[in-house]
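Please check the following for our workbook:

***
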Amino acid sequence: MGPLRSFPIVYARSWAAVVAFYERLGFERTFETGEYATLTRGDSQLGVVSSDWPAQHYGLPMGDGVRFELFVYVEDVRGLYGQLVGGGVRSIRPPEAMPWGETVAFVADPEGNPVALAMPTSSTE
């Protein structure tokens, strides 16, 4: 048995668009079958599966609205935020220095879920 671990699985109406979005954030596809992909970034993993999955496997419908929030630590919040928003990604909140010592911006993934881009606030911010 390998190391014990856990990771979230995102239900996606537009599977290919959601996978491509997370790849833009530095995640790499490390496994794929049908409309399921495991995406890996450093020690973190994220699964993305078609929104049909919960109904097919559990008899439960996927909920409407925001289904999760994800924090992704990056090297340059302002630069990546500008690239994403300039490329058509919806901004939720522009970069801001937070009182806990991080600069954080929020964008929406293709399904509207908030994704925080975060990094330690430098003394020059």
User: Anything to note?
Assistant: Residues 1-64 form a domain with the 2,3-Dihydroxybiphenyl 1,2-Dioxygenase; domain 1 fold (CATH 3.10.180.10). The chain has two domains: 1-64, 65-125. The helical segments are 15-24, 53-58, 77-86.
